[in-house]
Protein backbone atom coordinates (compact mmCIF):
# COMPACT_ATOMS: atom_id res chain seq x y z
CA UNK A 1 0.00 0.00 0.00
CA UNK A 2 1.71 3.21 -1.16
CA UNK A 3 2.43 5.79 1.48
CA UNK A 4 0.65 9.14 1.24
CA UNK A 5 3.41 11.65 0.50
CA UNK A 6 3.56 14.73 -1.70
CA UNK A 7 4.24 14.01 -5.39
CA UNK A 8 7.55 15.86 -5.21
CA UNK A 9 8.75 13.91 -2.17
CA UNK A 10 9.77 10.27 -2.50
CA UNK A 11 8.41 7.72 -0.10
CA UNK A 12 11.87 6.17 0.15
CA UNK A 13 15.29 7.74 -0.41
CA UNK A 14 18.20 5.29 -0.57
CA UNK A 15 21.74 6.53 0.03
CA UNK A 16 24.14 4.19 -1.78
CA UNK A 17 23.69 2.52 -5.17
CA UNK A 18 25.64 -0.67 -4.58
CA UNK A 19 23.85 -4.04 -4.78
CA UNK A 20 22.25 -3.56 -1.34
CA UNK A 21 20.93 -0.09 -2.18
CA UNK A 22 19.67 -1.19 -5.60
CA UNK A 23 17.96 -4.23 -4.07
CA UNK A 24 16.25 -1.97 -1.51
CA UNK A 25 15.13 0.34 -4.30
CA UNK A 26 13.77 -2.56 -6.37
CA UNK A 27 11.84 -4.24 -3.55
CA UNK A 28 10.38 -0.92 -2.40
CA UNK A 29 9.37 0.03 -5.94
CA UNK A 30 7.77 -3.41 -6.29
CA UNK A 31 5.52 -2.40 -3.37
CA UNK A 32 4.33 0.63 -5.34
CA UNK A 33 6.47 3.14 -3.45
CA UNK A 34 8.11 6.19 -5.03
CA UNK A 35 11.85 5.54 -4.67
CA UNK A 36 14.92 7.67 -5.35
CA UNK A 37 18.59 6.79 -4.94
CA UNK A 38 21.60 9.00 -4.20
CA UNK A 39 25.23 8.01 -4.78
CA UNK A 40 28.51 9.92 -4.77
CA UNK A 41 29.76 7.93 -7.77
CA UNK A 42 28.48 7.19 -11.26
CA UNK A 43 28.19 3.71 -12.82
CA UNK A 44 29.92 1.42 -13.39
CA UNK A 45 30.48 0.96 -9.64
CA UNK A 46 32.88 -1.84 -8.69
CA UNK A 47 34.11 -3.24 -5.38
CA UNK A 48 36.41 -6.09 -4.38
CA UNK A 49 34.10 -9.09 -4.11
CA UNK A 50 34.26 -12.86 -4.43
CA UNK A 51 31.50 -12.63 -7.05
CA UNK A 52 29.76 -15.88 -6.13
CA UNK A 53 25.99 -16.00 -5.67
CA UNK A 54 24.91 -18.93 -3.51
CA UNK A 55 21.56 -20.65 -4.20
CA UNK A 56 19.82 -18.59 -1.52
CA UNK A 57 21.03 -15.41 -3.26
CA UNK A 58 19.69 -16.74 -6.56
CA UNK A 59 16.30 -17.35 -4.97
CA UNK A 60 16.34 -13.82 -3.61
CA UNK A 61 17.17 -12.46 -7.06
CA UNK A 62 14.12 -14.22 -8.41
CA UNK A 63 12.15 -12.57 -5.63
CA UNK A 64 13.36 -9.18 -6.89
CA UNK A 65 11.47 -9.88 -10.11
CA UNK A 66 14.19 -11.34 -12.30
CA UNK A 67 13.42 -14.11 -14.76
CA UNK A 68 16.67 -15.98 -14.19
CA UNK A 69 16.24 -18.37 -17.13
CA UNK A 70 15.95 -15.39 -19.45
CA UNK A 71 18.18 -12.82 -17.75
CA UNK A 72 21.15 -15.13 -17.15
CA UNK A 73 21.26 -16.01 -20.84
CA UNK A 74 21.94 -12.35 -21.58
CA UNK A 75 24.98 -11.92 -19.32
CA UNK A 76 28.34 -13.56 -18.71
CA UNK A 77 28.13 -15.96 -15.76
CA UNK A 78 29.12 -19.46 -14.71
CA UNK A 79 27.19 -22.23 -12.98
CA UNK A 80 28.39 -23.19 -9.50
CA UNK A 81 27.67 -26.72 -8.27
CA UNK A 82 28.95 -26.38 -4.71
CA UNK A 83 31.86 -25.54 -2.39
CA UNK A 84 35.26 -27.22 -2.13
CA UNK A 85 37.73 -26.68 0.75
CA UNK A 86 41.43 -27.41 0.18
CA UNK A 87 44.03 -27.25 2.95
CA UNK A 88 47.66 -26.73 1.99
CA UNK A 89 49.49 -28.15 5.04
CA UNK A 90 48.64 -30.83 5.93
CA UNK A 91 46.95 -31.61 2.61
CA UNK A 92 43.19 -32.25 2.85
CA UNK A 93 40.19 -31.56 0.67
CA UNK A 94 36.44 -31.86 0.98
CA UNK A 95 33.49 -30.74 -1.11
CA UNK A 96 29.72 -30.53 -0.99
CA UNK A 97 27.23 -29.89 -3.76
CA UNK A 98 24.29 -27.53 -3.42
CA UNK A 99 21.26 -29.72 -2.62
CA UNK A 100 18.53 -28.33 -4.84
CA UNK A 101 19.69 -25.66 -7.29
CA UNK A 102 23.04 -24.24 -8.37
CA UNK A 103 24.69 -20.93 -7.60
CA UNK A 104 26.25 -18.59 -10.14
CA UNK A 105 29.52 -16.74 -10.52
CA UNK A 106 28.85 -13.25 -11.90
CA UNK A 107 31.21 -10.29 -12.25
CA UNK A 108 30.33 -7.56 -9.75
CA UNK A 109 29.97 -4.92 -12.49
CA UNK A 110 27.71 -7.20 -14.54
CA UNK A 111 25.46 -7.87 -11.54
CA UNK A 112 25.38 -4.17 -10.73
CA UNK A 113 24.18 -3.31 -14.24
CA UNK A 114 21.52 -6.03 -14.06
CA UNK A 115 20.16 -4.55 -10.81
CA UNK A 116 20.39 -0.99 -12.11
CA UNK A 117 18.44 -1.83 -15.26
CA UNK A 118 15.72 -3.48 -13.15
CA UNK A 119 15.46 -0.43 -10.88
CA UNK A 120 15.24 1.96 -13.83
CA UNK A 121 12.52 -0.18 -15.41
CA UNK A 122 10.50 0.19 -12.20
CA UNK A 123 10.75 3.99 -12.34
CA UNK A 124 13.41 4.49 -9.65
CA UNK A 125 15.05 7.91 -10.03
CA UNK A 126 18.81 8.28 -9.53
CA UNK A 127 20.93 11.23 -8.37
CA UNK A 128 24.52 10.42 -9.40
CA UNK A 129 27.62 12.21 -8.13
CA UNK A 130 25.72 13.51 -5.13
CA UNK A 131 27.79 13.31 -1.94
CA UNK A 132 25.65 13.46 1.20
CA UNK A 133 26.55 16.39 3.44
CA UNK A 134 23.95 16.12 6.21
CA UNK A 135 20.43 15.16 7.23
CA UNK A 136 17.78 16.92 9.27
CA UNK A 137 14.47 15.66 10.67
CA UNK A 138 11.26 17.21 9.32
CA UNK A 139 7.61 16.94 10.27
CA UNK A 140 7.05 14.24 7.62
CA UNK A 141 10.44 12.52 7.47
CA UNK A 142 13.92 13.77 6.71
CA UNK A 143 15.68 16.38 4.66
CA UNK A 144 18.93 15.27 3.04
CA UNK A 145 21.53 17.72 1.76
CA UNK A 146 24.10 16.77 -0.87
CA UNK A 147 26.82 18.76 -2.59
CA UNK A 148 24.33 19.44 -5.39
CA UNK A 149 20.78 19.55 -4.05
CA UNK A 150 18.37 19.13 -1.16
CA UNK A 151 15.95 16.22 -1.05
CA UNK A 152 13.08 15.35 1.26
CA UNK A 153 11.77 11.88 2.01
CA UNK A 154 9.43 9.96 4.26
CA UNK A 155 11.87 7.09 4.86
CA UNK A 156 15.66 7.29 4.61
CA UNK A 157 17.68 4.12 3.89
CA UNK A 158 21.43 3.98 4.53
CA UNK A 159 23.11 1.60 2.08
CA UNK A 160 26.42 3.44 2.21
CA UNK A 161 28.77 0.76 3.51
CA UNK A 162 30.89 0.14 6.62
CA UNK A 163 31.61 3.84 7.14
CA UNK A 164 27.95 4.80 6.74
CA UNK A 165 27.31 8.50 7.19
CA UNK A 166 23.61 7.78 7.59
CA UNK A 167 24.35 5.40 10.48
CA UNK A 168 26.55 8.03 12.14
CA UNK A 169 23.93 10.80 11.83
CA UNK A 170 21.19 8.45 13.05
CA UNK A 171 23.19 7.30 16.10
CA UNK A 172 23.28 3.69 14.86
CA UNK A 173 27.02 3.04 14.99
CA UNK A 174 27.16 1.09 18.27
CA UNK A 175 28.48 -2.30 17.20
CA UNK A 176 30.50 -5.36 18.15
CA UNK A 177 33.42 -5.91 15.77
CA UNK A 178 34.73 -9.45 16.01
CA UNK A 179 37.02 -9.51 12.98
CA UNK A 180 38.84 -7.21 10.60
CA UNK A 181 40.74 -8.63 7.64
CA UNK A 182 42.19 -7.42 4.37
CA UNK A 183 41.03 -8.65 0.98
CA UNK A 184 42.59 -8.49 -2.48
CA UNK A 185 40.80 -9.49 -5.69
CA UNK A 186 41.97 -10.12 -9.24
CA UNK A 187 40.45 -11.75 -12.32
CA UNK A 188 42.37 -14.17 -14.53
CA UNK A 189 41.73 -15.24 -18.10
CA UNK A 190 41.67 -19.04 -18.00
CA UNK A 191 39.09 -21.73 -18.63
CA UNK A 192 37.71 -22.68 -15.19
CA UNK A 193 39.01 -26.05 -14.03
CA UNK A 194 36.03 -26.56 -11.73
CA UNK A 195 32.33 -25.80 -11.29
CA UNK A 196 32.86 -25.37 -7.55
CA UNK A 197 33.79 -22.32 -5.52
CA UNK A 198 37.19 -23.42 -4.25
CA UNK A 199 38.46 -22.14 -0.91
CA UNK A 200 42.18 -22.69 -0.34
CA UNK A 201 43.38 -22.57 3.27
CA UNK A 202 46.86 -21.83 4.59
CA UNK A 203 48.43 -20.32 7.69
CA UNK A 204 48.31 -16.96 5.89
CA UNK A 205 44.54 -16.89 5.32
CA UNK A 206 42.32 -18.03 2.48
CA UNK A 207 42.20 -17.73 -1.30
CA UNK A 208 38.90 -18.44 -2.96
CA UNK A 209 38.25 -18.98 -6.63
CA UNK A 210 34.93 -18.33 -8.35
CA UNK A 211 34.42 -19.07 -12.06
CA UNK A 212 32.62 -16.06 -13.58
CA UNK A 213 32.48 -17.08 -17.26
CA UNK A 214 33.69 -19.76 -19.65
CA UNK A 215 37.13 -18.11 -19.82
CA UNK A 216 37.59 -16.25 -16.54
CA UNK A 217 37.90 -16.85 -12.80
CA UNK A 218 37.79 -14.41 -9.89
CA UNK A 219 40.46 -14.98 -7.24
CA UNK A 220 40.12 -13.28 -3.85
CA UNK A 221 42.61 -13.44 -0.99
CA UNK A 222 41.80 -12.81 2.68
CA UNK A 223 44.41 -12.27 5.40
CA UNK A 224 44.95 -10.63 8.76
CA UNK A 225 47.94 -8.83 7.27
CA UNK A 226 48.35 -6.50 4.31
CA UNK A 227 48.67 -8.36 1.01
CA UNK A 228 51.31 -6.48 -1.06
CA UNK A 229 50.68 -8.14 -4.42
CA UNK A 230 48.75 -11.03 -5.93
CA UNK A 231 52.03 -12.70 -6.87
CA UNK A 232 53.20 -12.63 -3.25
CA UNK A 233 49.81 -13.85 -2.04
CA UNK A 234 49.98 -16.88 -4.35
CA UNK A 235 53.24 -18.03 -2.74
CA UNK A 236 51.17 -19.05 0.30
CA UNK A 237 48.90 -21.18 -1.90
CA UNK A 238 51.16 -23.38 -4.08
CA UNK A 239 48.28 -25.58 -5.30
CA UNK A 240 46.40 -22.57 -6.60
CA UNK A 241 49.62 -21.06 -7.94
CA UNK A 242 50.06 -24.15 -10.14
CA UNK A 243 46.45 -23.92 -11.38
CA UNK A 244 47.03 -20.32 -12.46
CA UNK A 245 50.46 -20.89 -14.02
CA UNK A 246 49.14 -20.39 -17.56
CA UNK A 247 46.56 -17.70 -16.66
CA UNK A 248 46.73 -14.02 -17.60
CA UNK A 249 45.46 -11.26 -15.28
CA UNK A 250 42.34 -9.70 -16.82
CA UNK A 251 41.68 -6.92 -14.30
CA UNK A 252 43.62 -4.63 -12.00
CA UNK A 253 44.00 -5.85 -8.41
CA UNK A 254 41.44 -4.30 -6.07
CA UNK A 255 41.71 -4.30 -2.28
CA UNK A 256 39.16 -3.94 0.48
CA UNK A 257 38.53 -4.42 4.20
CA UNK A 258 36.20 -7.20 5.31
CA UNK A 259 34.63 -6.90 8.75
CA UNK A 260 32.71 -9.15 11.08
CA UNK A 261 30.42 -6.59 12.67
CA UNK A 262 27.09 -6.76 14.46
CA UNK A 263 25.15 -3.56 15.12
CA UNK A 264 22.96 -3.17 18.20
CA UNK A 265 20.22 -1.57 16.08
CA UNK A 266 19.66 -1.00 12.37
CA UNK A 267 16.63 1.33 12.63
CA UNK A 268 15.92 4.65 14.32
CA UNK A 269 12.62 6.45 13.82
CA UNK A 270 12.14 6.38 10.03
CA UNK A 271 15.77 5.59 9.15
CA UNK A 272 16.95 2.07 8.32
CA UNK A 273 20.31 0.56 7.38
CA UNK A 274 20.92 -2.20 4.87
CA UNK A 275 23.87 -4.16 3.49
CA UNK A 276 27.30 -3.50 5.00
CA UNK A 277 25.95 -0.34 6.64
CA UNK A 278 23.79 -2.62 8.80
CA UNK A 279 26.56 -5.02 9.83
CA UNK A 280 28.57 -7.62 7.96
CA UNK A 281 30.18 -11.03 8.06
CA UNK A 282 33.65 -12.04 6.90
CA UNK A 283 33.81 -12.43 3.13
CA UNK A 284 34.95 -16.06 3.34
CA UNK A 285 31.32 -17.02 4.03
CA UNK A 286 30.25 -15.86 0.55
CA UNK A 287 27.07 -14.51 2.15
CA UNK A 288 27.30 -10.77 1.61
CA UNK A 289 25.17 -10.34 -1.51
CA UNK A 290 22.60 -12.92 -0.46
CA UNK A 291 22.18 -11.22 2.93
CA UNK A 292 21.68 -7.84 1.24
CA UNK A 293 18.94 -9.21 -1.01
CA UNK A 294 17.14 -10.77 1.96
CA UNK A 295 17.50 -7.54 3.95
CA UNK A 296 15.88 -5.70 1.05
CA UNK A 297 12.85 -7.98 0.94
CA UNK A 298 12.35 -7.67 4.71
CA UNK A 299 12.78 -3.89 4.58
CA UNK A 300 10.24 -3.47 1.80
CA UNK A 301 7.71 -5.54 3.74
CA UNK A 302 8.23 -3.33 6.80
CA UNK A 303 7.88 -0.15 4.72
CA UNK A 304 4.68 -1.50 3.23
CA UNK A 305 3.33 -1.97 6.77
CA UNK A 306 4.82 1.40 7.86
CA UNK A 307 6.54 -0.36 10.77
CA UNK A 308 10.34 -0.48 10.77
CA UNK A 309 10.31 -2.57 13.95
CA UNK A 310 9.39 -5.48 11.69
CA UNK A 311 12.62 -4.93 9.78
CA UNK A 312 14.69 -4.66 12.96
CA UNK A 313 13.50 -8.09 14.08
CA UNK A 314 13.80 -9.66 10.64
CA UNK A 315 17.31 -8.32 10.17
CA UNK A 316 18.52 -10.09 13.31
CA UNK A 317 17.04 -13.40 12.16
CA UNK A 318 18.54 -13.03 8.68
CA UNK A 319 22.01 -12.07 9.88
CA UNK A 320 22.44 -14.60 12.66
CA UNK A 321 23.23 -17.87 10.79
CA UNK A 322 25.86 -16.17 8.62
CA UNK A 323 27.39 -14.50 11.69
CA UNK A 324 27.72 -17.84 13.44
CA UNK A 325 29.21 -19.42 10.31
CA UNK A 326 31.64 -16.51 9.97
CA UNK A 327 32.91 -16.94 13.52
CA UNK A 328 33.40 -20.66 13.03
CA UNK A 329 35.40 -20.18 9.84
CA UNK A 330 37.51 -17.49 11.50
CA UNK A 331 38.33 -19.91 14.32
CA UNK A 332 39.51 -22.40 11.70
CA UNK A 333 41.59 -19.68 10.08
CA UNK A 334 43.32 -18.72 13.32
CA UNK A 335 44.13 -22.26 14.46
CA UNK A 336 46.05 -24.57 12.06
CA UNK A 337 45.47 -27.51 14.37
CA UNK A 338 41.71 -26.94 14.56
CA UNK A 339 41.54 -26.37 10.80
CA UNK A 340 43.33 -29.64 10.10
CA UNK A 341 41.05 -31.53 12.49
CA UNK A 342 37.85 -30.07 11.01
CA UNK A 343 38.86 -30.56 7.38
CA UNK A 344 40.08 -34.09 8.05
CA UNK A 345 36.73 -34.85 9.70
CA UNK A 346 34.90 -33.43 6.68
CA UNK A 347 37.11 -35.51 4.37
CA UNK A 348 36.34 -38.72 6.28
CA UNK A 349 32.64 -37.90 6.75
CA UNK A 350 31.44 -35.82 3.76
CA UNK A 351 27.87 -35.77 5.08
CA UNK A 352 29.00 -33.36 7.81
CA UNK A 353 30.17 -30.78 5.30
CA UNK A 354 27.06 -31.33 3.18
CA UNK A 355 24.76 -30.65 6.12
CA UNK A 356 26.77 -27.61 7.17
CA UNK A 357 26.48 -26.17 3.66
CA UNK A 358 22.75 -26.87 3.60
CA UNK A 359 22.27 -24.93 6.84
CA UNK A 360 24.46 -22.11 5.52
CA UNK A 361 22.37 -21.60 2.38
CA UNK A 362 19.07 -21.91 4.22
CA UNK A 363 18.01 -25.29 2.85
CA UNK A 364 15.43 -25.70 5.60
CA UNK A 365 14.37 -29.25 4.69
CA UNK A 366 17.83 -30.44 5.68
CA UNK A 367 18.33 -28.42 8.83
CA UNK A 368 18.76 -30.64 11.84
CA UNK A 369 16.33 -30.68 14.79
CA UNK A 370 17.07 -28.01 17.37
CA UNK A 371 18.64 -25.54 14.93
CA UNK A 372 16.09 -22.84 15.83
CA UNK A 373 17.00 -23.14 19.51
CA UNK A 374 20.70 -22.99 18.61
CA UNK A 375 20.20 -19.87 16.50
CA UNK A 376 18.15 -18.23 19.25
CA UNK A 377 21.00 -18.85 21.71
CA UNK A 378 23.46 -17.44 19.21
CA UNK A 379 21.31 -14.36 18.72
CA UNK A 380 21.32 -13.74 22.48
CA UNK A 381 25.11 -14.05 22.62
CA UNK A 382 25.63 -11.75 19.64
CA UNK A 383 23.32 -9.00 20.88
CA UNK A 384 23.94 -9.15 24.63
Written overview of the protein:
It is built from twelve helices and 21 strands. It has helices at 19-30, 55-63, 68-71, 108-121, 165-170, 230-234, 238-243, 288-305, 308-334, 336-348, 350-360, 371-383; strands at 12-15, 35-39, 52-53, 78-80, 82-87, 92-97, 103-105, 125-128, 132-138, 141-146, 150-153, 155-158, 175-189, 196-202, 205-213, 216-223, 248-249, 254-263, 267-268, 271-273, 279-280. The strands form four sheets. Strands 5, 6, 13, 14, 15, 16, 17, 18 and 21 form a nine-stranded mixed sheet that branches. A six-stranded mixed sheet has the order 8-2-1-12-20-19. Strands 3-7-4 form a three-stranded antiparallel sheet. The chain is globular. The two termini are 36 Å apart. The model is unreliable at 1-7, 365-369 and 371-384 (pLDDT under 50).
Compact description:
By secondary structure, the chain is an alpha+beta fold.
Task: Give the arrangement of secondary structure elements.
Layout: E1 12-15, H1 19-30, E2 35-39, E3 52-53, H2 55-63, H3 68-71, E4 78-80, E5 82-87, E6 92-97, E7 103-105, H4 108-121, E8 125-128, E9 132-138, E10 141-146, E11 150-153, E12 155-158, H5 165-170, E13 175-189, E14 196-202, E15 205-213, E16 216-223, H6 230-234, H7 238-243, E17 248-249, E18 254-263, E19 267-268, E20 271-273, E21 279-280, H8 288-305, H9 308-334, H10 336-348, H11 350-360, H12 371-383
Parallel strand pairs: 1-2, 1-12, 2-8, 5-14, 12-20
Antiparallel strand pairs: 3-7, 4-7, 5-6, 9-10, 10-11, 13-16, 13-17, 13-18, 14-15, 15-16, 18-21, 19-20
